[in-house]
Amino acid sequence: MAKRYLLGNEAIAHACIEAGVDFASGYPGTPSSEVIDTLRAQREREFYIEWSVNEKVAYENALAASWCGLRSIVTMKHVGLNVAADPLLTSAYTGVEGGFVVLSADDPYAHSSQNEQDTRRYAHFAKIPCMNPSSVQEAHDMLCDAFALSEEVGLPVIFRPTTRICHSKGDIDLGEVSSEHRTGAFVKDPRQYVVIPAHTRVLHKILNEKQPMVRKAVMDLGYNTAEVRGDMAVVASGIAASYVQEVIPDNVSFMKIGCFPIDGDWMQAFVQQHRVVLVVEEGAPIVEERLRQLACGVEVFGQMNGAVPKEGEFSPATVAASMVRAGILPASPFESPAPVAGLPPRPPILCAGCAHRAMFYAIKRVFPDGIFPSDIGCYTLGLQLGTVDTTICMGASVTVGSGIAHSGETHPVVATIGDSTFLHTGIQGLLNAVYNGAEMTLVILDNRITAMTGHQPNPCTGETAMGEPSVPISLEGICRACGASFVETVDPYDLTGTLQTLKAAKARSGTKVIIAKQACVITARRSGVRRGRYAVDPEACTACGACLRFGCPAIGRDADDKAAINDLCSGCGVCAEICPSGAIVKEGRK
Amino acid sequence: MSSFDVLIVGIGGQGTILASNVIGEACLVEGIPVRGVETHGMAQRGGSVESHVRIGGVHGPLIPPGRADLMIALDLLEGVRYLHYLKAGGSIVANDQTVVPTPVYTQKLPMPARDELLGSLGERDLFLIDAAALAAEAGNPIVQNVVMLGAASRYLPLKESSMREAVARSVPAKTLDLNLKAFDLGRNAVRSE
């Protein structure tokens, strides 16, 4: 046993190796990514780890490993579970052999996400257990138990941390790393694994008959607790339970729901001992809906009557305000001091020297009246450059682009997508666009890595999750195989060549593909690439502002209002091509 | 048994996470419970970032507004942005510099001058430090965050020896001397005031 100061995701990863995980797959997505990144960096336990091309692929790989008897985990963010929802729902019917944990990290407040959906709905939908930790220590302890729970009930177990668990830290007690290793063996059983109608009807009945046993197994774990201390109660789930514990008065009862499904008899017995019950949970009102079914003559406060926010993330102050609304606290112990107004914002921004910025600049030059569907990745930050008109989910740039192109809209459509996102769910969209003759240009922003989530390798990178060399796939080959006849590769740092290729694409009809290939500026620097900085010649600079509009954080103004390049410069040289006065030159070369 | 709450603010890439790790490790050295939370993912890319550390914390990791005992600001503008987290009577250790946010240039927004920013920090217990100069003196501008930690260590309820041990646990071994020098320069800057 050891105590360490760990990130939630690091504690979760350590729990995996304590529980003897044999197989881990996933697709990176904030806030889940560090679980597999930690597993692939650790050297305490050896087992199979992969970054898969999308969540459905990751899910099915891990599911199959579980069918072969291995303890398996698949990790993703909440919206990734939508991609994996197809196998999820049916794997509840087939069941599992080795413990199978589906980690789907939710993101209340959408810190890095396109929505605030609640993964716990999927557990209810699929009729499988769900664990919802309230602290980093509990996340660790629950995950240690999750594999055994999965084996006990023969079902996938959903593990749902939220951003403030994944990315929070605490002093964590760790256990010993398991030395037990399993080798997979598939036992043929078509009635279990071939879900033709005759089999699946039986499997559905078995799943339903399991439910009382599942409820009992979940309760026996001891993560659902209740203490009666008065005639008013707060019921909480997830990290909201930690906030409640910070502010709850001693004479108010407290129930914590860590695992689902909830035992209705147990909950009802608690609720009926109270006059007033407040339910506090981030996300959807899952606990509240169940509790309202059971509460008879008890006044219930929660999201459904406006006592608790229906969206965003909570804090101790949010929870205290809800307690005031429910009459549990006379007044909030927290003031709400106003932030200083009128400050310039500092949003996240594409890095100095990022090739995406150069490509967006070139696209805007050639297609000033274009419509720009885009996708999920660092390049979504192109919004600030006016080159991101739509973003909905992974892969949707291509399909939204072809939809707009077929709608009768006459402005040119130029869609952008990253390499990893194209491989995730972009390929089918391109195949469909080409085959159906969509008039559009697709620009694949190929930086050779999954950058936004922390530089995980993908099939363009040329190495696996474990750092083993692998043959990088050819994006050009894939696009040609999808039927595209115009497939050109450009270097976005070469502005002149890039503009020429964009103009050539504009002149052609059909679905054109341009691959903008330049390594992520962060990985390039890490691998030793040094280009030498650029500098502004103040005598030549006319302070016209053209370089500033490029939006690179390496470019600012000096005291005389002329352009000045700071030490963030990575030497991409694109601003030197943009400057109409030739005032930007490589440092030391005037 | 309320916690001593520290908010570390700055710009993605300035090392707020390392700074919060050092404080967390120092708590482990002393056997004090600790909770923290930090910004990861997309928001890191040159954006405004915050790390919360609750020394002695046993519940949630988030510091409520108006409750921080100490703010460590790696950038003056970011210090002002998060000022409402500081409690009345709280202290600020701020790096005496600010990076102009890119939207100021691209959207032509007004940028407050240094005097205005200092004015907003107002009558708080403020210690301003030239972390860039001290980091350069230590040997590398990259250790500004550790200079700031050294200065902040005067305000923390943690022993100097625990903080130095925590630095050793948190940085690559080959950079230890550099980081300890940065820590000492920051810590001594407060004494010399």
Features:
heterodimer; A: 590 residues; alpha/beta; Rossmann fold; 4 domains; seven-stranded mixed β-sheet; five-stranded mixed β-sheet; 22 helices; 22 strands; B: 193 residues; Pyruvate-ferredoxin Oxidoreductase, domain 3; six-stranded mixed β-sheet; 8 helices; 6 strands; pyruvate (chain B); oxidoreductase (chain B)
SSE topology:
The complex is a heterodimer of chains A (about 600) and B (about 190).
Chain A: E1 2-7, H1 8-18, E2 23-26, H2 34-41, E3 48-51, H3 55-67, E4 72-77, H4 78-83, H5 85-94, E5 100-105, H6 120-126, E6 130-131, H7 136-153, E7 157-159, H8 163-166, E8 168-174, H9 190-193, H10 197-220, E9 225-227, E10 232-237, H11 240-247, E11 253-257, E12 259-260, H12 264-271, E13 276-281, H13 286-294, E14 299-301, H14 316-325, H15 355-366, H16 396-405, E15 414-418, H17 419-435, E16 440-446, H18 475-481, E17 486-490, H19 495-507, E18 511-517, H20 521-526, E19 534-536, H21 546-549, E20 555-557, E21 563-565, H22 574-578, E22 584-586
Parallel strand pairs in A: 2-3, 2-4, 4-5, 5-7, 6-7, 10-11, 10-13, 13-14, 15-16, 16-18, 17-18
Antiparallel strand pairs in A: 1-8, 6-12, 9-11, 19-22, 20-21
Chain B: E1 4-11, H1 16-30, E2 34-37, E3 48-55, E4 68-73, H2 76-81, E5 86-95, H3 102-106, H4 114-121, E6 125-129, H5 131-138, H6 144-152, H7 160-170, H8 176-191
